Amino acid sequence: MGTATGIIKALNSGIKHIATKRFTFRYPEQKLKFVGDGYQFDPTSGVGIAGYKGRHILFHDKCTGCNLCSIACEEIAEAIAMPKVPEQWKHNKKAIMPQIDYGKCVFCGLCVDACPFYALYMTNDYELSSFTKEGLIYTPAQLQVKPQVQQDVEIQIDEKGANHG
Amino acid sequence: MSAKLPPGLQLEKVDDRIMTLNVGPQHPGSGHMRIIIKVDGDYIVHTDPDPGYVHRGEEKMAEYRNYITNIPHLERPVIHDSCNILYPYCLGIEELLGLEVPERAKYLRVIAAELNRCVYIQYWLAIYGIFLGHSTMFMWPTGDRELLIDLLEKMTGARVTHAYFVPGGIRNDVPPNFEDVCLRQVNYFEKRIKEYADVFYDNPILISRTRDTGVLSREDAIKLGTTGSVLRASGVDFDIRKKEPYDVYDELDFQSPTLKEGDSYARSKIPWLDMFESCRIIRDALKKMPKSGSVRVKLKPKPKGGDTEIYRRVESGRGALGMYIVSKGKPQPYRLKISVPSFRNLIAMPHLLTGEKLGNMPAVYWSLNYWPVEADR
């Protein structure tokens, strides 16, 4: 193959893509859709349930303050502390619950694997940026809130190519 | 210059012809490493690669953590290939503890590892493109990589650092209808990477820049101890997936591509050919995989017995990646040694660059499939 033909072929394969729909999407207005409500773990079977590993969600009515999530994180990121909570629960005599520092968390989800009481899961929320370091520390009360996320964009593939709809 | 030097210091004698250049350590392309190059005019006369700027002490850290909490930090050296770097660790510990991995988990591990290999190669290819001033080849692989990252995200829940493999299987089963989505996206991905031939691999400008630069002969490749794509580009058919099959690689239908030339062009083409084989493996694995079943067995807290040592290796995106684990019956490994392909391929760099033109340096350097962070561990 001659040099000229090669260059023309290379240019041509690029020109073909001018007419196709763009692959990217406009992020803050549109968001990528994830599977399920986030990563969860079933301690009876010992296997997780597929989902995005984002911000945690803590169920106060299930957490016993057993410290297992904090122990799991101790050797990984040291992100989980166990402060006192003002609430009174029969199953949580010590009244301590996890508080997560997202400045340190690596989102591996091994704390979710460690929880034997179905109290700690992960959610689809990944927009955690904050102007202060303290803003990254989520208290048990903040972790209780279910995130409001609207994610609807998915990769679509047709004969012309792939796009995000 | 008659200023008096402090005792013990002396000025380096400067040759009239030779000039020393520091390439790096702030990103000669990607990653933090320095290449000290001596040039005579336009020709390189001496090369001294200087890695070690991103040493993290992964091996020492592993001695203080138990087998399961080692997982998130062990994938840090190559976050783009995180499944493959955890693979030998998991295989080794399964052998140490005598765990039998469920059949479905074996197939899913192979699928995740092959998807991750493609993700790594796409990233590598994008940087190779921009190294040679080909900005289209930076954009295309970066965009198409998104297809596979999306798949891995559905599978593992994370885009880059998955922490998906554990000793005894995988952490979660795939979501329902994953097989269809995976097949559709992998088929489209294969169609896309075929288009790279016209724009990059058959492009006369690329060929003129990489053909016959940095030629590594078959004998030298073996003698220097290179591995992976560098070794296979020099005509040695050595692929761990074929030679020492792990998990279910012996049941799957694929070939490992080999080229004879041993120049930068051949070294840049092998990973691209590898991606086609990865697509074949994924399709075959999806077909042969059991449709349901357990994916994880319970991990025992610590290995039985006294001193044991284990060495397992896998074929990563760059070459043979091995882990040597010594256990003294404690919940933590007594010693963990990571044998990384990047460091072994770096040894070939002074051999290849000496005698080349300075302009060919990026083409040769990045064709070695070298990842600085992994070499430093």
Q: Give the structural class of chain A.
A: alpha+beta
Give the integer mean of the pLDDT values of chain B. 86
Shape annotation of chain B: globular
Compute the number of structural domains of chain A: 1
Describe the structure.
- The complex is a heterodimer of chains A (165) and B (377).
- Chain A has four helices and nine strands; from the N terminus they run αβββαββαββαββ.
- Chain A is of the alpha+beta class.
- Chain A has a single domain (26-147), classed as Alpha-Beta Plaits (2-Layer Sandwich).
- The two termini of chain A are 39 Å apart.
- The mean pLDDT of chain A is 85.
- Chain B has a single domain (59-342), classed as Cytochrome-c3 Hydrogenase, chain B (Orthogonal Bundle).
- Chain B is built from 16 helices and eight strands.
- The model of chain B has no long low-confidence stretch (mean pLDDT 86).
- Classes of the chains: A alpha+beta (165), B alpha+beta (377).
- The A-B interface holds A 1, 3, 6-7, 9-10, 12-14, 23-24, 32, 34-36, 38-39, 41, 46-53, 72, 75-77, 106-110, 113, 122, 155, 157, 162 and B 64-66, 68-69, 71-73, 136, 143, 146-147, 150, 153-158, 161, 163, 171-175, 184-185, 188, 195, 198-200, 202-205, 207, 294-296, 298.
